[in-house]
Amino acid sequence: MARVAVVEDEELIRTMLRLNLEKQGYQVECFIQAEALLDRLAEVFFDIILLDIMLPGMSGEELVGHIRRRGINTPVLMVTAKSDIPTKVSTLDRGADDYLAKPFHMAELLARVQALIRRSQGERAVPSHQLIRVGPWEVNLETREADTRQGRMKLSEKECALLALFARNPRVTLSRADILDEVWGMDADPTPRTVDNFIVRLRKLFEANPEAPEHFVTVHAAGYRYDP
Ligand code: CA
C-alpha cells in the first residue's frame, strides 16, 4: 500500500484529501506544519508528498528545499492557491515534481498522484539507477555511500551486492544458498552463517529496531525476504 503524506493547514482541504486518498487505498498521514513532516521523514518512507505552499511556520517551498538537501527523492506534488508563475517556477526549481493550483478537481489530483508514484517506483526498479531506499535511508550502489542509522558511511562491496540482490527481488524469499550463490559466487568459501552475519549488519544499519526487523525479514526455515 502506497504511503501518502499530506501537508496542509486548511482543515477542510486536509480532510477532503485524506478521505479521497484513503478511498483509493492509500495510507495517508496528515501534517499541519512543514516541520512536523520533516521530523516524520527521519522515521518513515513516503511514496509521495502532497504539499501546500502557504503554511504556518516553514513554507512548502522551503520544505521542498530541505527534503531534497537531505537526499530524499520522494515525489512532491505542490497543491496550492498561489498559482502565480514565479512561485510555480521557484518551487519546481527547489525540487518539486508537479504542481496543481487550487481549486482543483479531485479526479485530476488522484490521477497525478498515481502517475507520480508509478514513475518513481519505475525509477526505483531500474538497477542502473543505482539508488536503493531502505525505509527512510538511501544507498548509492555506485559509490557505495549510504545514509544509515549510524550516519553516512561507505558500505563494503559485498554489503552492496547483497542490498542490490534484495532490491531486485523485493518481497521474494531468498534462501541462504541463493544469496551465497548470487553475492559470493566463486569467492572464498563462505558458509550460510556468513549470510546471517551480513543480515545482522544490515539490520543494525537500516532497521529502526534490529530485533524486530521490518525490511530484512527472516522467513522461518526458508531464508530471508526484503520488504522495501
Ligand atoms: Ca495554506
Note the topology:
Layout: E1 3-7, H1 11-23, E2 27-31, H2 34-41, E3 48-51, H3 60-69, E4 76-80, H4 85-93, E5 98-101, H5 106-125, E6 131-134, E7 137-140, E8 145-148, E9 151-154, H6 157-168, E10 173-174, H7 176-184, H8 192-206, E11 216-219, E12 223-226
Parallel strand pairs: 1-2, 1-3, 3-4, 4-5
Antiparallel strand pairs: 6-7, 8-9, 10-12, 11-12
This protein binds calcium ion.
The site of calcium ion has 5 residues, from loops.
Strand % is: 15-25%
Summed up, the domain count is 2
Could you describe the largest sheet, including whether it forms a barrel?
5 strands, parallel
- Helicity range: 40-55%
Number of beta strands: 12
Tally of helical runs: 8
Please state the overall shape, judged from the principal axes of the Cα atoms.
Answer: elongated
The whole-angstrom Rg is: 20 Å
Give the cofactors and ligands.
Answer: calcium ion
| Top-tier CATH class of the largest domain | Alpha Beta
- According to CATH, the fold-level topology of the largest domain is Rossmann fold
Average pLDDT, rounded to a whole number, is 88
Q: Architecture of the largest domain in CATH?
A: 3-Layer(aba) Sandwich
Structural class given helices, strands, pairing? alpha/beta
Which H/E pattern describes the elements?
EHEHEHEHEHEEEEHEHHEE
Spatial strand arrangement across the major sheet: 2-1-3-4-5
**Low-confidence regions:** none
CATH superfamily of the largest domain: Response regulator
Distance between the termini: 12 Å
